[in-house]
Every structure is written in structure tokens, then in C-alpha cells.
Amino acid sequence: MTLPPHAARRCWHTAVNPLHSTIYFSPDLTTELAALGVTHRVAVNLATRSAAMGAVGPGAVTATFYNYRHDLVAAHLPAVWDVATPEQVLAARLRAADTTLRRLLGPAVIDSAELSEAADLAMRATEGCTRHARTLYAAHADLPVPQEPHLRLWHATTLLREHRGDGHLAALLLTGLDPLEALVSHTATGRGMTPKWVKSIRGWQQDDLDAAAARLRARGILEPDGELTDEGRAVRERLETETDRLDAAPYEHLGAQGLARLAELGGGFVQRAIAAGAFPRDLFGKA
Q1: Bridge partners of residue 193, in order along the sequence
Q2: What is the pLDDT of residues 65-97, one digit of tens each?
Q3: Could you tell me which residues come within 8 angstroms of residue 124 by beta carbon, excluding any fewer than 6 positions away?
Q4: C-beta separation of 64 from 79 below 8 A
Q5: Closest CA to 12 of 130, 120, 156
Q6: Is the Cβ–Cβ distance between 37 and 286 less than 8 Å?
Q7: SS3 assignment, position 146
Q8: What is the DSSP letter of 129?
Q9: Rounded percentage of the chain residues whose pLDDT exceeds 90
Q10: What is the pLDDT of residues 221-236, one digit of tens each?
């Protein structure tokens, strides 16, 4: 790699992924999907995340999402497609992204040259993405690119988010972390979702989390108090390093200067969105 160490990772975590993810905690998405007849919070999440793949069933979604409880997925898919088509869901999601970003960033930012510049940079990075073995990225890459700069930026961050995410799943398999072990060890870093949100969004029960923690302790990854051991920290770093390697192409294509500028601009937008209440305060952390 020709980029500074961890530069692409930092950009993804601080600028790319959060900009895309604002949609999943937005009341605007709830409103848009309710107008289609999709009102259950979990159904909204599953439908909006999977719609780019078409009217797929629970097996495909559980496999592609990796760490959702299959019973939770099967309770809502494919039934949700009897209520709204994937095309309707995708259109509603884009309308929600429009409303959400306008609300969180404000008209001055939406109309700014800086936002348009960030959209151009992010779209340029997506030119380095690849489709093979990247299900969610490839599905989203088939969608049309919006014209408005803020929606073009959101679309680009969606592509970059799913490209890294698909590679991350391959890295998880190679690292030997099953879906629950991945979630529990990520929470232990302090950067993952709290157990409350793991259970709420992913559908797991406390017994499931406890069993995964026991397996991680037996492998020397977790301490008895739930903190990562030295080996646990090394495992998580190997996981991220392998994910970085698999996700290097878009950011190498963008180049060090473009990457730094995207991180600067996108990070500023994310901080503005956070200040406007884009995410629940208890979403990330160990408890």
C-alpha cells in the first residue's frame, strides 16, 4: 500500500460509514417505510438494508449480514415483500436520506462547494471497488447514481461502506470469529455496539452473548471481566488489518491527498450530524 498506515481505515470509520449509517437511526426512514405499510422497526431495518438485492429470503440475508440472528430475519423476510416491493423500499430510503441529511447538516452545508467536492472524491474512490465476492456492494453498484450532491455523497458512502463490509466478512471467517464472537469481541474494544443494541438490532438474547463470551474466554481472547486480553487485542487488530488489505483498492485509487481531503470533509459532516442527534448516545461502548 502507498497510503499512510491506517489512513483508509480512519476515513472509513470517521467519515464514510457514519454518513451512510445516519439513515438507520433516522425518524425520516421510519416515516417513509410506514407510508408503505412497513411499521415494525426490525422489518424496516432488514428491508432497507437488503432491498438492493431484490426480494430475497431469510437465508440470503442472514448469510450476507453475518451477525443477525436467523430467527429474527425469518420473522420478517420474505413477508415484508408482500407489503412493499424492493423498488418501493429503495425509493423510500433515498427520500429518507434526502430529508435526513438536509435536517442534520442544514441548508448551508447541503448547498456548499465542500459537500459537492466530498461527493466527487467519494465517487472517485468507488471506481476502485470490485464486485467479485461482494454481495451487498455489487447489489448497490447496480443502482443509479443520484444527481444531487448530498445524495451522490450518500450513495458513494453506501458503496464504500458495503465494499469494506463484504471484505470484513471474509476476514472474520479467516480470523475464526463466528457472528456472536465477532459482536462480543467488538463490543469489548469499546468501539462496537453496546449489548443493549446488539440484542435490539441483531436479535440475540443475553444467554447467546454469555455463551459467546465463554467461548472467547476459553480461547484466551477475553478476560474473566469481559475485557480483551493481549491475544484478543491482537486478534481484533489482525482482523482489521486483513480488512484493510481487502479494502485497499478504492482508497489507493483515490490517492493519499484525495483520501486526506475526503476524511477532512466527511469527518466534519459527521461531527455536525452527531451534534444534531444522528445517533443514539448509548449506541457504542462496552455497557
Answers
A1: 284
A2: 999 999 999 999 999 999 999 999 999 999 999
A3: 253, 254, 258
A4: no
A5: 156
A6: no
A7: coil
A8: -
A9: 98
A10: 999 999 999 999 999 9
ω into 78 cis (within 30 of 0) = yes
Q: For the beta carbon of residue 220, count every other beta carbon within 10 angstroms.
A: 12
Answer for the pair 282, 199: CB distance below 8 angstroms, yes or no: no
Q: pLDDT (tens digit, 9 = 90+) per residue, 38-72?
A: 999 999 999 999 999 999 999 999 999 999 999 99
DSSP-derived secondary structure for 3-57: SPTTHHHHHIIIIIHHHHHGGGG-HHHHHHHHHHT---HHHHHHHHHHGGG-S--
Mean pLDDT along residues 172-199: 95
Q: Which amino acid is at 207?
A: D
Where would I find the H helices in the chain? 7-11, 17-21, 27-36, 41-50, 58-65, 70-74, 86-105, 107-110, 113-126, 135-141, 149-175, 179-189, 195-202, 206-218, 230-246, 248-254, 256-275
pLDDT at residue 34 tops 70? yes
Classified as helix, coil or strand, 220 is: coil
